[in-house]
Amino acid sequence: MVRPFRTRDEPALSGSDFVVRGGPLDRDATERTFNRCVEVHGVPAISVAAAAGLDPEQIIEESKILRNLFSEYLWCHVSDLWNGNYSLLATNARPHYSLILPGDLDNDTWEDLAERFRPL
């Protein structure tokens, strides 16, 4: 049974706000989390973190998961994702967001994501 996302009210992100993803952009790990999200929520998405007005270091500091599980981070601007037809949905606890992909995590989408995110 598909469970809807637990969403939250959050100030709107602007194109200049930052998005952070923990760890290197590893295809196998990303595909596992993508497939789990599709299975559980019925939505093609991966986890990221963002918060209006915060820089990447502040977003990491605010996220217990990012601080405790990762030592490497990737970042991009919200506008980088919007320009690629991705959307962001505030889910779970702040600063978690679900990055909604325009479809499957196929080779083209994977390469596109890899070009948008850069190491912090």
SSE layout and pairing:
Elements: E1 18-22, H1 27-41, E2 45-50, H2 56-62, H3 64-69, E3 73-77, H4 78-82, E4 87-90, E5 96-100, H5 107-116, E6 118-119
Antiparallel strand pairs: 1-2, 1-3, 2-5, 3-6, 4-5
Provide structural commentary:
The protein contains 5 helices and 6 strands, in the order βαβααβαββαβ. The protein has about 120 residues and is of the alpha+beta class. Strands 4-5-2-1-3-6 form a 6-stranded antiparallel β-sheet. The protein is globular, with a radius of gyration of 13 Å.
Radius of gyration: 13 Å
Q: Specify the biggest β-sheet.
A: 6 strands, antiparallel
* Main β-sheet, spatial strand arrangement: 4-5-2-1-3-6
**Residue share in helix:** 25-40%
Average pLDDT, all residues: 96
State the distance separating the first and last CA atoms: 38 Å
Which properties best describe this structure?
120 residues, alpha+beta, globular
Describe the structure concisely for a colleague.
The chain is of the alpha+beta class and 120 residues long. The protein has 5 helices and 6 strands. A hairpin with a 5-residue loop joins β4 and β5.
